[in-house]
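Hi R.,

Here's the input for the magnesium ion complex you asked about:
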Amino acid sequence: MPTDTVPPFFAAHGLSKHFGGIRAVADLSLEIDQGEIIGLIGPNGSGKTTSINMLAGALHPDSGSIRLAGMALNGQPAHFFARHGVARTFQVPRLFRRMSVLENLVVPALSNPRASRAHAERKAREVLEFLRLDRLTHEYARALSGGQQKLLEVGRALMLEPRLILLDEPFAGVHPRLLEQIIDHIKALNRQGLTIMIVDHNLDAIRSVVRRTAVMARGVKIADGAADDVLRDPDVVHAYTGSRKDREGRAHG
Ligand SMILES: Nc1ncnc2c1ncn2[C@@H]1O[C@H](COP(=O)(O)OP(=O)(O)OP(=O)(O)O)[C@@H](O)[C@H]1O
Ligand SMILES: [Mg+2]
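And here is the predicted structure with magnesium ion in place:
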C-alpha cells in the first residue's frame, strides 16, 4: 500500500468550543480542497463566527485539530496561522477608523519585524488597485461606506498573501452595486488560486459564488455538499425557517 498519500489542503477535525454553559460549536469537521470556494451558512448564533475564529487561530478549540497541508496549526497563536497562509476578515470590520485607507493596509503589515515599509506600501497599492479602492487611498477609513469597509477588510487579509481566506459576512450591509463588485473580486481571487470560505446570510450571493456549502445549526454541522442540493435539503430549510417544508415548499408544521 502506498503510504505517501497527499494530505488534504485544509482539514479541521472534531472542533468544539463552549463558552461557559453555551455549546457554540460541537464536533465540527471540515475539509477544504486547494483552490476550492466553499460557503458556511446557518441561522444567527449557529456557530459560524466561532468556527472561523477557531479555523483562523483566534480562539483555541476545547478539542479537535486543524491542519494545513498536513501541518498541525492547532495550539499555535493566530499570527502563526497567518504566517502560514490562513487569513480572515471580521464580521464587523476592525479598521483603524482615524487612519487612511493606505495606512490600514500598511500598519498591520509592519507588525512583522522583517517587513519593510517600502515593500508594504507597494503591496498595499497593488491591493487597492485590485480592489478598485485606489482612488480612496488617502481617505480616512471611517469615511468609507459599509461595503467599501468590507472590501478594505478583504484588502487587509490579502496583505498577508494568504493561501486560504475566511470571509465573515462579506456581503452584509453592502449596497447591491458594490455587492456585485465584491462577488467579482472573490471570483477573481479564486481564479488566481486562492482558497476561500465565505460565511454569509445572503444565500443568493452565496449560491452565485460557491459550488459547495456547509450548514450549521445550533453549533452542529448539519449538511455539507453541492450548494443547490444543500439549499433544498428539508433539514436545512427547517433550520432556517423553523417549519418543515418539502421540496415543493408545502409546510408540514
Ligand atoms: N465570546 C463569547 N462568549 C460567550 N458566548 C459566545 C461568545 N461568542 C459566541 N458566543 C455564543 O456562541 C454561539 C455561536 O455564536 P457565533 O457568533 O459563532 O454565531 P454565528 O453563527 O456567527 O451567528 P451570526 O450569524 O449572528 O453572526 C451563540 O450562542 C453566541 O451567543
Ligand atoms: Mg457570526
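One thing worth noting: The CA atoms of residues 87 and 157 lie 5 Å apart.

Cheers,
M.
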